[in-house]
């Protein structure tokens, strides 16, 4: 994942309503502070956690998933705002990928709960780990906060 020298806000996207709220929040915040927004989605091979959930099979097509991520940004933000967001689909554990992407960022934004885990949990495991280990400020956004 390439890094610009300018300020950036990193946001985790996993196809959940919570991550969409985080994406919208990150775009608004990035505009306020003059930072670029980088949307990051992580995927692992079958047997691990995968974004999007429908891609958990041996026929996973990374290029198609990248195109799907870009389309998802357009669906959530509209074309005007989606075109200002850099999208990255990265193979690896979601926590590790986000922590790496967040190095040197102005902030990292994640949803309060993603696709996995227990519905009753107040924080998802990814947001909890990111909040505990990131080297930049972390904002955790609830799905009804956008």
What features would you describe in this structure?
With about 150 residues, this protein is of the alpha/beta class. The protein has one domain: HUPs (Rossmann fold, 3-Layer(aba) Sandwich). It contains 5 helices and 5 strands; from the N terminus they run βαβααβαβαβ. It has helices at about 15-35, 60-75, 80, 95-100, 125-135, and strands at about 10, 35-45, 85-90, 105-110, 140. A 5-stranded parallel sheet has the order 3-2-1-4-5, with helices on both faces. Helix 4 runs parallel beside helix 5 (about 125-135). The chain is globular and about 40 Å long. Residues about 115-120 have low confidence and may be disordered.
Concise account of the structure shown:
The chain has a single domain, classed as Rossmann fold (3-Layer(aba) Sandwich), CATH 3.40.50. The protein has 5 helices and 5 strands, in the order E-H-E-H-H-E-H-E-H-E. It has helices at 17-33, 62-77, 79-82, 94-102, 125-133; strands at residues 8-12, 36-43, 85-91, 107-111, 138-141.
